[in-house]
Amino acid sequence: MSDYFMREAAPFGDGVWAQIDEMVVSVAKKNLVGRRILSLVGPLGWGVEQAPMFGFTDEGGADVVTGEAKYLRLAEVGAEFIITAKQLLMAEQTPFGLDLGAVATAVSRLAREEDGLLVGGLLDKAETKAALGDWDALGGPFEAVATAIAQMRQAGVDGPFALVLSPAMFARLASLMSHGRRELDMVSKLVEAGLFQSRSMPDDQVLLLSPQPWNMDLVVGQDIVTSYLGNEGLDHRFRVFETLVLRVKRPEAACVLK
User: Do 73 and 121 form a contact (C-beta atoms < 8 A)?
Assistant: First the structure.
């Protein structure tokens, strides 16, 4: 297989690459939110640049997928990091191992960019709107989410539903308790597909989704991979990146509470 990512040109062998790849996977799993909510299509490969998206229509009382597709271009998200020659030498000559903090930081940046693309896209395309209510009052969040779910079901959108909110909104929700009953537990029971925190969410909005694959999904071309960009003097630059696109097939399956 051709080494399109120039990994063989790096000044180290498979052992160091294994450490880098393990760090990339570990940090990505901990930080990526959108992938825990949406169904994935792929990975299809770096060479895939577009993904078809079909809509739905009604013909004679029967639901049917539209014949013509809209083609969406996959976006590339990524971040770069540097490993110095001295770090590599220290890893060889001392018992301390290779410091991969720069790798972890770069993957965290990639995760924020991916979630920004996905959460931002869902907020932008959501056709359903509902009232946020008072998230500082006991019972306020439960009533707001229950009402929004009822509104979506009335419009023909089925569950299970997922809820996405900012860390600040999550803190407000988690702080509400009365007679041993936590508001967080009550709201969580309403959203069987999960309750998620995302730094890409505004602090004054909440996103309710029916993340079934016929409503929305995530197409991955190139899955997260680390490439070698070359040396800069004695140091070495790398790029961790991916290509992907959000497909919202039924915009009414996304509801913004605000």
Answer: no
78 to 84, 90, 131, 222, 236: CA distances (angstroms): 20, 28, 35, 11, 17
Q: Where are the alpha helices (DSSP H) in 55-181?
A: 85-93, 101-125, 140-154, 167-174
Q: Are 206 and 257 in contact (CB under 8 A)?
A: yes
Beta carbons of 238 and 202 less than 8 angstroms apart:
no
Distance CA(9)–CA(255), nearest Å, equals 48
The model's confidence at residue 57, banded by pLDDT at 50, 70 and 90, is low
The predicted structure's pLDDT at residue 42: 95
pLDDT for res 3? 87
Which residues 6+ apart lie within 8 Å of 36 measured at CB?
A: 194, 196
164: closest CA among 176, 156, 173, 154?
173
Q: How many CA atoms within 13 Å lie on the side-chain side of 63?
A: 6
Walk me through the domains of the chain, giving residue ranges and CATH numbers. 7-257 (3.30.2400.30)
pLDDT surpassing 80 at residue 61: no
pLDDT of residue 79: 98
Distance between CA 126 and CA 248 in Å, rounded? Answer: 9
Cα dist from 13 to 18, 63, 96, 170, whole Å: 9, 55, 18, 44
The mean of the pLDDT values for the chain is 93
Q: Residue 63: its pLDDT value, please?
A: 59
Q: What is the pLDDT of residue 163?
A: 98
2 contact partners, CB below 8 Å, separation of at least 6:
none
Name the amino acid, one letter, at 195. L
Residues 6+ apart with CB under 8 A from 109: 79
